Amino acid sequence: DAKTTQPNSMESNEEEPVHLPCNHSTVSGTDYIYWYRQLPSQGPEYVIHGLTTNVNNRMVSLTIAEDRKSSTLILHHATLRDAAVYYCILRDHSGTDGAAAVQYLRGGEKEGI
User: CA angle, corner 29, sides to 27 and 33, nearest 5?
Assistant: First the structure.
């Protein structure tokens, strides 16, 4: 069973980058690393995912360690609107259909960015 661990909370100044680490030492070769966030009074929403290489989108970057046992979500210019619970999860894509991931949420969380 894949496990992830994260710090309980992180703090940041507005407009500064925030690095949210996640350890996943039990990652397998077919596990994708997914990040979701949950804003107050809302359901989880997808942020970014990757397998072996670093990934960027307009809001964040995901850096994945060479051994894939850890990753870091980087919010480049955090604002109060980014204050949320952030989830790092592993999803096995070998033979799965890529169904909705909400039921797969597990691991730590981050608050008060």
Answer: 55
Q: Helices (DSSP H) in the chain: which residue ranges?
A: none
Task: Please give the backbone phi and psi of residue 11, each rounded to the nearest 5 degrees, phi first.
Answer: -125, 155
Please enumerate in sequence order all residues whose Cβ is within 8 A of that of 101, keeping only pairs 6 or more positions apart, or say none: 34, 36, 46, 89, 91
What is d(CA 41, CA 58) in angstroms, rounded to the nearest whole number?
Answer: 24
For domain 4-108, say whether CATH 3.40.50.12280 is its number: no
Using DSSP bridges, classify how beta strands 45-50 and 60-64 pair: parallel, antiparallel or unpaired.
unpaired
Q: How buried is 104 (Cβ within 10 angstroms: 0-12 exposed, 13-18 middle, 19+ buried)?
A: middle
Task: Render pLDDT for 1-60 as a digit per residue (tens, 0 to 9).
Answer: 557 777 777 777 888 898 999 998 888 888 999 999 998 899 999 999 999 999 999 889
Among positive and negative, which fits the CA dihedral 28, 65, 70, 12?
negative
